[in-house]
Amino acid sequence: MTTRRTFxxxxxxxxxxxxxxxxxxxxxxARHDRSRTSTxxxxxxxxxxxxxxxxxxxxxxxxxxxxxxxxxxEQIHQTLEAAWNAGVxxxxxxxxxxxxxxxxxxxxxxxxxxxxxxxxxxxxxRIFEAxxxxxxxxxxxWKGQLNFKFxxxxxxxxxxxxLEDSLQRLGLSSIDVVFVHDLSPDNGDLGDRWMEQFExxxxxxxxALTKLREEGVIKAWGLGVNRPQPILKALEVxxxxxxxxxxxxxxxxxxxxxxxxxxxxxxKNVKAVIGGPLNGGFAAGxxxxxxxxxxxxxxxxxxxxxxxxxxxxxxxxxxLALQFAAQHPVVASVIPGASRPEQVKENMQSFxxxxxxxxxxxxxxxxxxxxxxxxxx
Length: 377
Description:
By secondary structure, this protein is of the alpha/beta class. The chain has one domain: TIM Barrel. It contains 13 helices and eleven strands.
C-alpha cells in the first residue's frame, strides 16, 4: 500500500521529532520569553532562537509591491484577505518591494488585526527618500508610479532610521523579524564592493539588531539574500536567529544549500525562511526564472521531466516545489508570493495535498532531486 501523507501531517511528525516546524509553543510565548531575557541566566540568553513561526508557510510581499506588473490596491487587499482567511499568519515585506508600496499595503490590511495573532518581518539596508522626478518604468522589477529613490546604508544609524520609516509606512507599533537585505555578491548595485558593505554591516547593522533583540524591540534578525556567501560569513561574525534563504533551496536548485549552507546554519541553531520557493513562478508554469530575464534551457527540461513523472499522480510541479522546500528541518517557513486571491488558494492547496512517498522516490531515482533531500519519509 502506498504511504500518503499531507505536508501538514508530515510537519506534525517532524515537530514531534524536534524539527521545530509546528511546536505547541506559539510565537507569542516566545515573545514573552524574549521580554524576560535580561533577567535570565546565560543558558537562556539566546532565547530568540526558539522563536516559532505560526505555521510552516507564510506570504511573501513582492506582489503587493507591484513586482513584475502593477496590481491595484483593491486586488492586493483581496489577496491578503484570502491569505488571512486561509490561516496565513506570517507576512514578509520590505521597503524595497515597490519602494515602500508593499509595506504600505501590508500595514493597511493588518492595521485592525489583533497584533498578537501574526508575525511580521521586514528588511533594512536601504533608506528611501521622496523623488519628485521619479519616472515610471525606471525601477526594474517594480512597476507603476513609485515616487521614491534609495541609498544603501548598513550602519547602526541606518538600521534605526530604516525601521522607524518602516513603522511609519506600516502604521504598526512593532516589527517581529528584521532581515538585512541584499548584502550579497549578486546585488548589481554593489557588485564587487559587497564585501566593503558587509564590513560596515558587521560593525553597524549586526550589533545594532542584536541589541534591539536583547532589548525586546524585535524578536529575531538575520540576512535576506539570494546567495550563501553572506550568510556563511554572518554566522562567523554575528549572532543571527533566522535567514531568509531566497532561491537557494528549491525543487530545481538545492544541492549547495543541502550540503553546505544548511549544515552550517544548523550548527548555530539558525533557522531558514525560504523565499522564492517557486523560482519566480517558474514552478507554477510561468516562463520566468527567478528575478531577472532569461529562461535557462536546462531548467525548462528539468521542469518537463518532473511534470512527466508527477502527472500520473495528479500532483502539480508547484505543489512539489512548495512541499520540497518546507520539509527540511532547518526550514521554519516557506513564503510563496501572490498578487491574486486565486494564487493564495492554489498555494494553500499545495501545502495540504497528498504527495505519495513513491513520487519523491521516483524523482530521486531519476536524479531530479538530490538523494539526501529530506522528503517523503
